[in-house]
Write a structure and sequence with these properties.
By secondary structure, the protein is mainly beta. It has two domains: 100 residues, Immunoglobulin-like; 123 residues, Immunoglobulin-like (Sandwich). The chain is elongated, with a radius of gyration of 31 Å. The longest helix is centred in the first third of the chain and has 26 residues. The N and C termini lie far apart (119 Å). The chain is 9% helix and 33% strand. The strands form four sheets. Strands 10, 11, 13, 14 and 16 form a five-stranded antiparallel β-sheet that branches.
């Protein structure tokens, strides 16, 4: 140590100080690395997602429910202001998720089932260690992939279903082969459930021998004026319609809209009451 000079000590102190500064800098950078966006990271055994309206805007207050058919259990949450939800951990069994939007329309409360981006999203699943993301979107019409479509009922569609009965005054009926075209014209100022502008809807069916009942499916909810035209052997005529088989027939049903399906928790169909119990009689 007798050959160590003061200059050597000064150099050693400077080198040590520089090395410590570099270490502190690296440590500081490591501590302040940004955390991942929790909105896009699924947690083990959990289900998260986002609910948007027909225009892609987030929907707050939407009810989201997970059902386990094997365990007969369920859990339920609601979406936040950003339309996001997070269900508790779902560790056992196979699950399906559903969402319902509560809407007030014409002074009545509806619980409308919401759709999902792809048909596979409706399948039962297990979140597993990787978790799962299940998003929802509001649909006014179209098929509900996980519900059976029955041509003699209103099941399987986001839109409503009308029943027309080929039966008029004195039990008169239209002949087999008659093509009936039903026109639903939105009344002035009417809007769809989401507030958007509606369109005129036309649906047709052909009268069959011995068949009295005909269903028209997947009609987006609106207040309509309903008219119909019958065509047989090249000749056309206006159809008479009524909500009663014995009286009140006229050229149009005025101010029609679908009533809400009973139940406040939401069912697995569209939330609209079909006219099976209140058919429209035509002749």
């Amino acid at each position: 140590m007798k050959n160590v000079t003061p200059q050597f000590f000064q150099s050693l102190v400077k080198a040590t100080t520089l090395m410590l500064a570099n270490c502190l800098f690296l440590f500081s950078c490591e501590v302040h690395t940004p955390e991942p966006d929790i909105d896009v990271v699924a947690e083990a055994y959990s289900v998260t997602g986002k609910v948007v309206d027909t225009k892609g805007a987030p929907m707050a207050g939407v009810k989201v429910r997970a059902d386990n058919s094997a365990l007969y259990g369920s859990t339920e949450v609601t979406t936040d202001e950003q339309g996001r939800y997070k269900l508790p951990k779902l560790e056992i069994g196979s699950w399906k998720v559903y969402a319902w939007k509560e809407v007030n329309y014409k002074g009545k409360t509806y619980h409308l089932r919401l759709g999902m981006p792809a048909a596979a999203d409706y399948d039962a699943f297990s979140p597993g260690k990787g978790g799962a993301v299940k998003n929802f979107n509001w649909q006014l019409s179209g098929q509900i992939p996980d519900r059976p479509r029955n041509e003699r009922s209103g099941s399987g569609y986001f839109g409503g279903t009308l029943l027309f009965r080929n039966l008029g005054l004195d039990a008169s009926t239209m002949a087999a082969g008659t093509v009936v075209t039903v026109t639903l014209t939105p009344v002035a100022g009417a809007t769809l459930f989401d507030g958007s502008a509606p369109s005129v809807i036309r649906k047709s069916f052909t009268i069959e021998e011995g068949e009295y009942n005909y269903w028209v499916h997947d009609i987006a909810q609106c207040e309509y004026r309903i008219t119909a035209e019958a065509k047989l052997n090249g000749a056309s005529r206006a159809v008479q319609l009524s909500k009663s088989v014995s009286s009140g027939h006229a050229a149009a049903i005025e101010g029609f809209y679908f009533k809400p399906h009973l139940g406040s928790s939401g069912d697995y169909e569209n939330g609209l009451l079909t006219t099976n119990d209140e058919p429209i009689f035509i002749y």
